[in-house]
Amino acid sequence: MEKKTIGKFIAALRQSKGITQKELGDMLYVSNRTVSRWERDECTPDLYLIPTIADIFGISADELLRGEIDRKCGNEDPPCTSARTQRQLNGILLKKRGNFKALSFIPAGLALCALAVCLATFNSPQYYWLGMMFAAIFCSSGIICAVCFARRTLFAITEEYESYAEIIRAHNDDIMFTAVAVTMGDIAALFFCIPTAFYGGDFQYLPMWATLGSAFAAGAPIICFMLYFFGMRRTMLAEGMLGGTGKKHLLNCRKRNILAALWVVAIAAALCFLTAGLLISEGYAILVLMLLAPVALLAAAIAHIIINNKFIKKINNGS
Prior knowledge:
Layout: H1 6-17, H2 21-28, H3 32-39, H4 50-57, H5 61-66, H6 79-103, H7 105-120, H8 128-153, H9 165-193, H10 196-199, H11 206-238, H12 247-279, H13 283-317
C-alpha cells in the first residue's frame, strides 16, 4: 500500500474492511462527522486514539502514523521508516499546539474583560461590587478554560510511543509553558480586582486601589507559580511527561524563560509608573510617569524581537 496521509490511510483501511464512517466512529466513541474530517485531512485523530485505531485495522501504531503498511523492511530495520513516522507525529503535535495556542486567547480575553468590567463599575456606589463579582467570574472561567485546554492537549507517554518520548516531552513542555503563562495572567487580573471591595464606589480612591491591586497582581502569581513549580511540575517530571533534553528544545526553553522574565519586569515597571503617576499631584510629574509606562512596554517589545531573532539564529545553526 502506497504512503498516504493519516486521514487518507484511515479511509483506505476502512473501505478495505467494509466499515462505514458511523461504525468506525461508534467503535472509537466519536461521531461519523469526526471520522469524515479525519479522512478529508481537516484534522487528525487525538494521539490517545491512534493505538485503538491501529488495533481495529490490525496494524501497528507506527504503521498508522507512517501512512503505509510495512512489508519491505519489517521489524529488522526500523530506521528505514522511523523518519516518516516521526514527521507524521510532529505534524499531529504541531496542529495540537497551534489549536491550543489559538484557544489560549479565550482565557487571555476573559482576563481583559474582567479588568474592563471592574474599572467601568469602579465609580458606581451601587454596582462596583457587581463589577468585582463579574471580574471574579471571568477570571475563574479563564483559569478553568486554560486548565481544560491544557489537559486535552497534553499527551501521556504510553508503551506504544516510548521511542518518541523526547518529541512528546518537548510538546508537553511547550503546552505547559503557555498554559501556565495564561493562567498566571488570569490570576494576576483576579487579584488586581480584589481591592475593589475596599475602595470601590468613589473615584478618589483609584490611586489606592491601583497601588494595592498592583501589589496583589505581582505577588499572587509568583506564589501560585512556586506552588506549580515545586508541586505539579515535579510530579509531571517524575512521571516522565515533561523534561525534553534536545538541544533545540533546550534553546527554545531558554528563550521562553528570558522573554517571560523580560515581560514580567516590563509590565511591573509599567504598573509602578502608572501607580506613581496616580499618587503624585504635580502636573509635569504625572505626565512624565504616565508616558514612561508605554515606553517601558515598547522597550520590552523591541528587546523581545532582538532576543527572539538571536535565538532563531542559534537554533538554525544548531549551536
